[in-house]
Amino acid sequence: MFDARLIANEILHRVWAEELEVTQIDVQKILYFLHGHHLLEHRQPLIKSEFEAWDFGPVQRSVYDAFKAFGDQPITELAKKLDPVRRITLPFPKLVDNAAVATIEQHLYKYLEIPSFALVDITHQQGTPWSRTIEAAKFHVNIGMRIKNDLISSYFEGLQTV
Questions:
Q1: Closest-CA residue to 156 (of 62, 22, 49, 45)
Q2: pTM score, whole prediction
Q3: Average pLDDT of span 100-121
Q4: 56 and 25 in contact (C-beta within 8 Å)?
């Protein structure tokens, strides 16, 4: 399991190598779909923190915080991590995990072909982990509106390839 910002940076490296641009919403949705595929194919999470159900779909808060300055504009800088002892920001290392890299290589480019708000629409369909989390919150407290990995995994087991 990895920090969501590390995976986001890997996405950015690959996007920029193709001379493409992505916004925060693109990165958030692609992270979610990569995480779901990884859960299904490797039976373990790609990202160690849980996704949260926000208005525009599943979100990784740390990634949102890292890129919020870009608003709806293309992201042009990598996420960094804070060293709390030295009070400085540091770059993330390169992703070298074979399973994580394989998931990204296998699935990233098909999601890059889908417009941002089409990805949002996919996550908002009835029965998705996002919609089920939103619906459940009407009857049960869910602090942080966390989307559970078991919901994501079971959804991806029945998901048709996009």
A1: 45
A2: 0.92
A3: 95
A4: yes
